[in-house]
Amino acid sequence: xxxxxxERYGTVSxxxxxxxxxxxxxxxxxxxxxxxxxxxxxxxxxxxxHISIGFLILLLMLARIFWALRNQxxxxxxxxxxxxxxxxxxGHVALYAALVLMPVSGMSIMIGNGYGLTVFGMELVAxxxxxxxxxxxxxxxxxxxxxxxxxxxIGHVVMALVHRFVKKDGVLQRMF
Length: 176
Known about the structure:
Membrane topology: Multi-pass membrane protein
Family: Belongs to the cytochrome b561 family.
Strand order of the largest sheet: 1-2
InterPro entries: Cyt_b561_bac/Ni-Hgenase (IPR011577), Cytochrome_b561_oxidase (IPR052168), Di-haem_cyt_TM (IPR016174)
Helix content: 55-70%
Number of strands: 2
Radius of gyration: 18 Å
Mean pLDDT: 91
CATH architecture: Up-down Bundle
CATH class: Mainly Alpha
Largest sheet: 2 strands, antiparallel
Order of helices and strands: HHHHEEH
Shape: globular
Organism: Luteimonas terricola
Strand content: under 5%
Pfam family, one: Ni_hydr_CYTB
Oligomer: single chain
């Protein structure tokens, strides 16, 4: 397991990054649940895994944050960021925060409405009494956060492509 360097992300970082990316794409397919009430292949095959995949994203993001903090000292210090560097850092922090808050808000909806929480067939939280404030929090945050996350992901992909095709500075290759 290679550690992160300034030239290339290590195996663990790359595995966590691309696993979360793939799972986020899967989660975006939830929008097809809105078409014909989910009565099609995507709605019937992939969408039912939405809660379990969201929980998995939460676990992977917590691992990614832990790994990034653990690797922070192993990389040589980068030159002080210019304004765009600060914007990139803020974008990454926002992306990480959204990727943690999305599943937390989704779980809040489920638990707050008394449905409990079942992940990959395992009951983690039993059905129970409604918790109105928790359901309200989840309901108010989850959908707007989904749109924000979508915008952050698009921005992340666009900037990766700018680094690859415009700046040609090798930043994108660090993640491959």
